[in-house]
Inverse folding.
DNA sequence: ATGACCGCCGGGGGCGGA
C-alpha cells in the first residue's frame, strides 16, 4: 500500500496536476488538504473515473480535506466538531485494516494571534481524541499538513523561526505528547537533513531550498514495522502553477 | 531577502497561507 499526503492548495487551481499525479504515481491512497471548495462543486469524476473511492469534507475559500482510496473505506468520519471548531480540517477512514486520519492543522499566523491559540486547542483536542478512541498497539496513521517542523533540521532557518508558529516550543510540546502516546515519525528516517515538503511562494524559496518539513506520517508500531520507504515528490513543486507543498509518500509492505 | 508569491472572492484591493 502506498499512501500519499498532499496539500494541493485549491483543487480548482491544481486539478490538472492532481489528475497527472493519479495517472503517473497512482498511489493506493491520496490524502488531500486545502481543497478550498464546497462538497457540491467538487468534481468526483477526477477520482472515481480512475477507480478511486472518495470522501470529502470541503469548504469554500479555506481549508477542506478529502481522501481518495483505491480500496473501499470503512468507518469514515467527515469532520470532528470538537477538534475543528467549524473549520473543515478532519477526515478519517479505515483502509485495509489501517485507521488513517487525514488532517489540515491550523497554521497559527504568529504567537500573539488568536489563530495560534486555536492551533494549540486543535492539537489538545486531537490528542485527547486519539488517546480516548485509539490504541497504540493497533495500526493507526496520523497524516496530513500538520504545520509543525519537529526538529531544527526540518526548517531552513531555526533561529529565524524561534517562537514562530511551525517551529514554536508550544507546538513541539504537542508533538512530544503525540510521540509519548506511541506515534513514530515514520518517514523521517528515509530523508536526508534539509529535505523539505513545503516551500513558500515568496522570495524564490524553492529554488534556494528555503523550506520546511511539515507534512508528515505519524504511525503506531504495527504500521512502522511495515514501512518500506518514503519519498518526497519534489518534482511536483517545480512545476508551473504548483502547490507550495510537495506530495509525500509512505510505502507499506504486507 | 515574508512589503517582493499565489489563490481566494469579486470585479478592487484585502486576507490567508507558513
Amino acid at each position: 500500500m502506498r499512501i500519499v499526503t498532499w496539500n494541493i492548495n485549491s483543487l480548482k487551481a491544481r486539478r490538472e496536476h492532481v489528475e497527472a499525479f493519479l495517472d503517473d504515481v497512482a498511489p493506493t491512497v491520496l490524502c488531500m488538504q486545502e481543497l478550498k471548495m464546497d462538497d457540491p462543486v467538487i468534481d468526483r469524476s477526477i477520482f472515481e473515473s480512475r477507480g478511486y473511492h472518495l470522501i470529502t469534507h470541503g469548504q469554500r475559500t479555506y481549508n477542506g480535506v478529502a481522501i481518495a482510496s483505491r480500496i473501499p473505506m470503512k468507518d469514515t468520519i467527515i469532520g470532528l466538531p470538537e477538534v475543528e471548531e467549524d473549520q473543515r480540517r478532519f477526515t478519517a477512514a479505515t483502509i485495509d485494516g489501517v485507521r488513517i486520519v487525514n488532517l489540515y492543522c491550523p497554521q497559527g499566523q504568529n504567537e500573539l494571534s488568536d489563530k495560534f491559540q486555536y492551533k494549540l486547542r486543535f492539537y489538545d483536542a486531537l490528542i485527547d481524541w486519539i488517546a480516548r478512541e485509539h490504541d497504540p498497539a493497533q495500526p493507526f496513521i496520523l497524516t496530513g499538513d500538520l504545520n509543525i517542523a519537529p526538529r531544527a533540521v526540518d526548517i531552513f532557518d531555526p533561529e529565524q523561526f524561534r517562537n514562530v508558529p511551525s517551529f514554536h516550543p508550544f507546538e513541539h510540546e504537542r508533538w512530544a505528547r503525540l510521540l509519548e502516546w506511541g506515534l513514530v515519525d515514520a518517514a523521517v528516517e528515509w530523508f536526508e537533513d534539509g529535505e523539505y515538503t513545503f516551500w513558500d511562494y515568496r522570495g524564490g524559496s524553492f529554488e534556494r531550498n528555503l523550506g520546511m518539513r511539515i507534512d508528515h506520517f505519524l504511525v503506531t508500531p504495527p504500521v512502522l514495522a511495515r514501512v518500506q520507504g518514503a519519498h518526497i515528490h519534489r518534482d511536483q513543486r517545480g512545476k508551473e502553477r504548483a502547490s507550495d507543498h510537495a506530495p509525500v509518500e509512505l510505502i507499506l509492505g504486507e
